Amino acid sequence: MGTEDSRERGSSPQLPLFEGSGLRxxxxxxxxxxxxxxxxxxxxxxxxGKGTQAxxxxxxxxxxxxxxxxxxRDRILIGDDFGKAISSRIDFGQFVPDDWINRLLEERFAxxxxxxxxxxxxYPRTLSQAERLCERIRNAGSREExxxxxxxxxxLDASLETLAARFAGRRQCSACGTLFHLxxxxxxxxxxxxxxxxxxxxxxxxxxxxEFVARRLTDFExxxxxxxxxxxxxxxxxxSVEAGNGSPEEILQRVLSGLRGIRPGPVPCTRILDxxxxxxFSVVSPATARGGDHS
Length: 295
Prior knowledge:
It is built from 9 helices and 8 strands. It has 295 residues and is of the alpha/beta class.
């Protein structure tokens, strides 16, 4: 519908760069204005495991996991007019307008840890967002001191039955936003969050309720089809991975195998995107990954 896609041009409050952003970053990081490095884009329907795989890939490639969902939730917690506007849309299962998303992502990309690359979870979701991202990365090559970044896409595939089961058991911490699943990734603290120094309760996400799930999946298919076609034509590599079965580590190995296939030969996974001097990767468990900033 018109209120949910990139055609909406409604006004939104101004966003001063980084001011009170609440982003999940070390306080020592500052915006540098540098060109954005390479990007690994995770695509997949809601419930396909993008967040889990993004966290594991972040451990591997030493690129930050940039989650649109986390950035939006952090903005909501600030409680300003912009956060309230975002909250009202999410509460009704609607997508946030592209110009809002792009502005929040520009804040995040300007931080120093994105200089060499990012793992993108939930972005780009529309053709407008994909065009903006490609422009952002490709324009890096126009600066003499920078080389153009590269774009790699991983599409996570899962059946509708699998997605429905994942939605039914998914829970989120009311305090820190960490995601859990009653069956696949339960909290060690039962109905409460098991992250250190967090005592939040686990709640069903508003947009995981049955009345919103069908709309989310329909919107995903409608909005993502042109995004996939656009990225397939422009990305440096595009791989599809079966994410409907297997443990997170098994799915991760499929992702890494696909990425290595883009760069044949004995290339450590930390060198796939031409990063430098990063240690060899060893698979971490979901519990270990959940101990960081994202789940």
